[in-house]
Amino acid sequence: METVAENQNVRNAKKLEKMFGHIDFKHPPELCPVRDVMSVASDQWSILIILWLGYFPVLRFNKLKKYVYGISNKVLSQRLKVLEADGYISRKAYPEVPIRVEYRLTDFGQTYVEKLLELTEWMQTNSPKVLANREKYGLI
Amino acid sequence: METVAENQNVRNAKKLEKMFGHIDFKHPPELCPVRDVMSVASDQWSILIILWLGYFPVLRFNKLKKYVYGISNKVLSQRLKVLEADGYISRKAYPEVPIRVEYRLTDFGQTYVEKLLELTEWMQTNSPKVLANREKYGLI
DNA sequence: TTCATTTGGTTACTTTTTGTAACTTACTCT
DNA sequence: AGAGTAAGTTACAAAAAGTAACCAAATGAA
């Protein structure tokens, strides 16, 4: 791959290499764990599920469905499975009738929700700019 | 909506309210700018496009396509449009033949790429854990 | 002159992913 | 006997994404 130094001035290139050089989003997905892992963790439904489980330490399926407004049973169930497989959340089923299932963040999930919260705060702060821009763009 | 204090012990609830209370991911999408804006900005292709434009300050369509490995013309073109509409990137076309088009981050996009870089570093650090977990889960 | 090449897309068509809504299981309560 | 309940699953429809061919308009080569 061509380096940034070939396209930009050298001073800037050094800074960019320091910021980006060690991060591995630069490979095809099958060779790139970052892309692979991120595509699950930054999915829009995954984000909401994890945020809600950060807010309410324990949630059952139907509560999650209520809070993650708009999600379908099917997708919620799918996402919960992959989030569990990836280690963000845990699932505990109690063999009562009707069955009771509790979802919560793992310790690992807790570290992720902190990152997500930062991202979400950024979105909260900046969404007015984005909406204003979108509006303006629509008129052009 | 029910508050966290009704479900959890009060000490923890205060902390959670402080962290989450002011953030607005709790509404249906049509009422929730955060969900709306985030669904564009945290899309897997959007993330890669923005990261690459953080790394190479100027990129043309076909370079982007090469670097954002696996993206199709169609989706690249769509994403560039919405990212431009939302104010993250700018598009400048030079009426040469064949046409030359330059994409770069806006100042606003620059502030976002910094957030994304943090997220990406987290993914880089933690992807081994996720992959290991996934492996283990597969056996169960 | 005719033909291939170039960039930044678009278009038509196929495949995959999502959304919708009805259904299931197994036990309890009326 | 029939209704209700929690946590899903299933079949079918709709939307999104992937694929690959195509386009314009000029340049350079044959």
UniProtKB/TrEMBL annotation, chains A, B:
Q: Which Pfam families match?
A: HxlR
Q: Which GO terms describe its molecular function?
A: DNA binding
> Which part of the chain is the HTH hxlR-type domain?
32-131
Enumerate the UniProt keywords alphabetically: DNA-binding, Membrane, Transcription, Transcription regulation, Transmembrane, Transmembrane helix
| Classification via InterPro entries | HTH_HxlR, WH-like_DNA-bd_sf, WH_DNA-bd_sf
Which residue stretches, if any, does this entry annotate as coiled coil? none
Task: List all membrane-crossing ranges.
Answer: 45-62
According to the entry, what is the taxonomic lineage of the organism? Bacteria, Pseudomonadati, Bacteroidota, Flavobacteriia, Flavobacteriales
Does the record bear Translocase in its keywords? no
Listed PANTHER family: HTH-TYPE TRANSCRIPTIONAL REGULATOR YODB, TRANSCRIPTIONAL REGULATOR, MARR FAMILY
Q: Establish whether keyword Cell inner membrane is in the entry.
A: no
Q: What is this protein called?
A: Transcriptional regulator
